[in-house]
Design brief:
The protein has 2 domains: 6-228, Alpha-Beta Barrel (TIM Barrel); 231-259, no CATH class. Helices cover 40% and strands 14% of the residues. It is of the alpha/beta class and 259 residues long. It starts with 5 loop residues before the first helix and ends in a 12-residue tail after the last helix. It has 10 helices and 8 strands. The structure holds 3-methyl-2-oxobutanoic acid. 3-methyl-2-oxobutanoic acid (KIV) binds next to loops.
Length: 259
């Protein structure tokens, strides 16, 4: 399996849909690596794995452990590390943390949330050789409400301006989270870098979902998630059967015993 280059992602715009998923662990990373262009070590791991109320509680040390596990388990995909809340409050802090992240995890790029305000930071990181993925629309680290964005004219204009500013600052792709369909379409047509949608319609250049959501492992089920399985139910059934077997002394059987 040949390692995918970031330049290849740029070339896919308007041609081939870019496929992305999140991964926090070795097993999911190994499977996603077989099929996806990009794997995101998302700070959503705080809520999905650690039961935190928001992604703001995630710290850089925890993220680095997962980033390393994911990167070490992939051969082909581009691995993007989601910079946690307050780790990029200005361009110097952002660079110090991004350098540490890349050094310790060997991830291929970092992602940070924000529009026009992030331009200086993105330019600083990319100038220093750190590939950056942008993230606009709904911003889980700072949003006060988790409603779909771009429903009114002012918000639409603001998000479009964010997209243009971020795309001109050197990112190789931009995540667009939870915006109305016609805005996602307009952004995708207006900028030269690929857009990766999550709750942002088929008009984006690629799609991303939180893997646990699409597998039916999390409790979240927003409209934009398509569930490909209900693993929670499957695991529940397995654990129930295991406990039953133990109680009935059906496990371990002769097959599981060393003679
Ligand atoms: O943290 C995350 O998983 C993300 C995705 C929702 C894009 O940022």
């Amino acid at each position: 399996m040949q390692k995918l280059k970031i330049s290849k992602i740029l070339k896919k715009k308007n041609k081939i849909p870019i496929t992305c998923l999140t991964a926090y662990t070795k097993t999911i990373a190994q499977i996603a690596d077989k099929f996806c262009d990009i794997i995101l070590v998302g700070d959503s791991l705080g809520m999905v794995l650690y039961g935190m109320k928001t992604t703001r509680e995630v710290n850089i040390e925890t993220m680095i452990l997962h980033g390393r596990a994911v990167k070490n388990s992939t051969k082909k995909s581009i691995v993007v590390f989601d910079m946690p809340y307050k780790t990029y409050t200005n361009k110097f802090i952002a660079y110090k943390n991004a350098r540490k992240i890349i050094k310790l995890t060997k991830c291929d790029a970092v992602k940070l949330e924000g529009g026009k305000k992030m331009v200086g930071t993105i330019k600083h990181l990319t100038k220093k050789g750190i590939p950056v993925m942008g993230h606009i629309g709904l911003l889980p680290q700072t949003s006060r409400n988790f409603k779909v964005k771009g429903k009114n004219f002012i918000q639409k204009r603001q998000i479009l301006e964010d997209a243009i500013a971020v795309s001109n600052s050197g990112v190789f792709a931009i995540i667009i989270e939870c915006v109305v369909e016609n805005l996602a379409k307009k952004i995708t047509k207006s900028i030269s870098v690929p857009t990766i949608g999550i709750g942002a319609s088929k008009h984006c250049d690629g799609q991303i979902l939180v893997t646990e959501d699409m597998l039916g492992l999390s409790d979240l089920f927003p409209r934009f998630v398509k569930r490909y399985s209900n693993l929670k139910k499957i695991i529940e059934r397995c654990i129930k059967n295991y406990v039953k077997d133990v109680k009935l002394r059906r496990f371990p059987s002769y097959k599981n015993v060393y003679k």
